[in-house]
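Q: Sequence in, structure out?
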Amino acid sequence: MNFEDSAEIQNCLGILEAYGVDTVHPAHVTKTAAVLFDCLKELHHLGESERRLLIYGSLLHDIGWSISEKKHHRHSMDIILGDKSLNLNDRERTIVANIARYHRKALPSDEHENFSGLSPEEKNMILVNSSILRIADALDRMHMSRIEVAGCTVSGDSVIIKCRASGISMYEITALEKKSDLFKQVFNKNVRPVCLIEQKKK
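A: Exactly. Output:
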C-alpha cells in the first residue's frame, strides 16, 4: 500500500478528520513506520499484508484523542473495533486495533482480553508492528514532522536509524529510549538514531 496514492489511506485520513483529530502527526508517523518496516524485513520477515495493517494502525493510533488524551491508546482500540467504516474485515480490525492500542504504555500481554485469544501468528504481527510504531511515534514526539527517516541498518546488537534532521532533541531521545522497550523485546536489538546533516551550500 503506497502512502501517497492509496484510497484506503485517504479513507483513514477522512475518518480522522471526522473525529476531529489532526492528520499531520499520524501521516508523518505512518511514513516513518513504513520506511522502518521496509528496511527491517531481514529481521521480521513479514510481507505486504502485514505492512498494510501497520499503516492502518499508524494512521489511527491517535484517534482516541477524540475522546480524551488520558488513556487515548485504549480509546483508539475501542474506536477501531467499533467503526465499521474502515475497510477491514473482523480479523484485520482486531489486529489494527491492537497495533494502535500498543503504540504507548503497556506492552502486549496475554492478560489483555483483545490480545490473549489471538493466534501466535497474529500476536507476532502485532508485536512486530507495534514495536515499529512505537519507534516512529517517538521520533515525532514534538509533533513537528521535522525528522525524516532515510533508512536503517542492522549492525550487531543494534539497529541504526538514519535520520535527516538538523538534530534530534532531548524530547525525541528520551521518548525513543522509553518507547524502544518493545522493539528490544521483539528483536533483541538496541535502537540508535544517527543524524545525516546535509552541508549547506555556500
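The beta strands are 148-155, 158-164, 190-195.
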